[in-house]
Description:
The longest helix is centred in the middle third of the chain and has 18 residues, at 56-73. The protein is built from 6 helices and 4 strands; from the N terminus they run E-E-H-H-H-H-H-H-E-E. With 135 residues, the chain is α+β, with helices and mostly antiparallel strands. The chain is 41% helix and 16% strand. It is globular, with a radius of gyration of 17 Å. Helix 5 (78-90) crosses helix 6. The strands form 2 sheets. Strands 1-2 form a two-stranded antiparallel sheet. Strands 3-4 form a two-stranded antiparallel sheet. It has one domain.
Amino acid sequence: xxxxxxxVRDGRMDILAINSLxxxxxxxxxxxxxxxxxxxxxxxxxxxxRDFFPNWEQAADTTVAIMxxxxxxxxxxxxLADLVGELAMCSDEFRTRWVAPPRPxxxxxxxxxxxxxxxxxxxxxxxxxxxxxxx
Length: 135
C-alpha cells in the first residue's frame, strides 16, 4: 500500500510494520531511539502526544481499551504486564484509565472542515461521517 499511511500493530501497541507515508505521519514516535516504537508509550509519556492526537482523550481511552482486550486474551503476557506497569508508574492519565471501569466506546467519526462557497453557510463547512475502522 503506497497511497495511504498504513501500519501493523500488536495488542501492546507496538508498531510492527509501517509504510513510508505511515512513517512520515507517525514520525514523532520514531524520535525516541527505543524499539519497537510503541503507540501507548508515546501517547502517555511524551508531552507532544497531546498536540499529535486531534482528540487526545478519546484516543487515550481507545489505547487503554485495546491493551485491556489484549490482557484479557493473554493474561500471562509478561511484556504487556511490564508495559502496563511502566505506564502506570509514569503516567497518572494511564493509571486512572487502567483502573477505571471500562466505558462503552464512542462511535468513531471522521471530521473535515472545508471552505464553503455558499453565502448561506458562512466561510467554513464542517462535515462529519462515521469512520470505518479495521482492527
